[in-house]
Amino acid sequence: MRRNTKPERDGRRSRSRNEGMAPRRRSRHLDGVIRIPVNDHDFMQRMMTEHGKILPARLTGATAKQQRRIRKGVRRLRVMGLLP
Q1: What is the DSSP code string of 8-73?
Q2: For residue range 9-66, what is the model confidence (pLDDT) as tens digits?
Q3: Residue 47's closest CA among 22, 77, 23?
Q4: Is the dihedral of CA 10, 16, 19, 23 positive or negative?
Q5: Which of 16, 30, 33, 73 reaches 20 to 30 Å from 5, CA-CA?
Q6: Is residue 71 part of a domain?
Q7: pTM > 0.85
Q8: In Å, how far are 23, 37, 41, 43, 62 from 33, measured between CA atoms?
Q9: Is 66 part of a structural domain of the chain?
Q10: Host domain of residue 65
């Protein structure tokens, strides 16, 4: 009786995660923006959906630090009553 044996492979080569895939393109929402204007109502409105949700960084092209500032600014403007 065999124990602790690996299952036999069927001969297919396993691929790495990104092999054969095109690189992900970043959106142009933040093209050229270095500092996030957290009190700018119009800018923060562009970082949200029409339902009032904050867009993820993969769609806006924001870095992690920029995304934290966007989140902070949107929350601040919501408290002030300027955003939904």
Answers
A1: PP-SPPPPPTTTT-PPPPPPSTTTT--S--TT-HHHHHHTB-TTSPBPPHHHHT--HHHHHHHHHH
A2: 666 666 666 666 666 565 566 766 778 888 889 999 999 999 999 999 988 888 899 9
A3: 77
A4: positive
A5: 16
A6: yes
A7: no
A8: 22, 9, 16, 11, 9
A9: yes
A10: 41-80
